[in-house]
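Lecture notes, part 5. Sequence design as translation. It can be helpful to think of inverse folding as translation between two languages: the language of shapes and the language of residues. The source text, in structure tokens, appears below.
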């Protein structure tokens, strides 16, 4: 890591300005492939993010070793203000996919950051984008039990409740398997097909019963 990385990571905006005035390399990457912008985005340091974008014209689409951008990092951690800056100030690509095919929406949904999800949907993020396993943001939110995000995806973006991943699983399969009864109720209220079968022929009921999730059953 360079001095600029450390200053950006810790949110020291004045130090960042001094380093940039001394021609610090704004695109230098650390061992994880992160630039100073990605470090600042990860830390939620909105002022530093603005400085790097406006003063140094930092590359908003730079990728780390996992294929993620600064927007991936901010969204995945839930820094909604930074997400807005990256979208509005730098026109960050809301559909960028990392090495496992996750879009920014996948990361926000999986981690339950409902406010970020709303911001991304307002920026026309594709709610049906599929990762390398065929999963959508709805699969990711349902599989972790984030009921509020599931509701947002269904009501705000009309997410396809019947989308199947590469295993043939719907969001209902994902939620039932772990026993997230509230998510299951939301999906059923959205007319999820309780008879949908995965590639192995199992329905959501099979998944719930196998996991001994009596409340879901």
């Amino acid at each position: 890591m360079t001095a600029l990385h450390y200053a950006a990571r810790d949110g020291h905006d004045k130090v960042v300005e001094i380093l940039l005035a001394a021609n610090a390399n704004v695109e230098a990457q650390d061992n994880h492939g992160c630039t100073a912008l990605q470090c600042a985005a990860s830390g939620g340091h909105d002022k530093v993010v603005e400085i790097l974008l406006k003063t140094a014209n930092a590359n908003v689409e730079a990728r780390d070793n996992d294929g993620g951008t600064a927007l991936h990092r901010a969204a995945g951690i839930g820094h909604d203000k930074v997400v807005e800056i990256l979208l509005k100030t730098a026109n960050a690509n809301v559909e960028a996919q990392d090495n496992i095919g996750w879009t920014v929406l996948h990361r926000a949904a999986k981690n339950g950051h409902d406010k970020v999800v709303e911001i991304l949907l307002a920026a026309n993020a594709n709610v049906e984008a599929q990762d390398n396993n065929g999963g959508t943001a709805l699969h990711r939110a349902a599989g972790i039990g984030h009921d509020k995000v599931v509701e947002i995806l269904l009501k705000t973006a009309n997410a396809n409740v019947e989308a199947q991943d590469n295993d043939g699983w719907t969001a209902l399969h994902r939620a039932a398997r772990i026993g997230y009864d509230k998510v299951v109720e939301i999906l059923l209220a959205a007319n999820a097909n309780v008879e949908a079968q995965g590639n192995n022929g199992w329905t959501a009921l099979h998944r719930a019963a196998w996991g001994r999730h009596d409340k879901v059953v």
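The translated text above is only one of many valid answers, since several sequences can fold into similar shapes. The radius of gyration is 20 Å.
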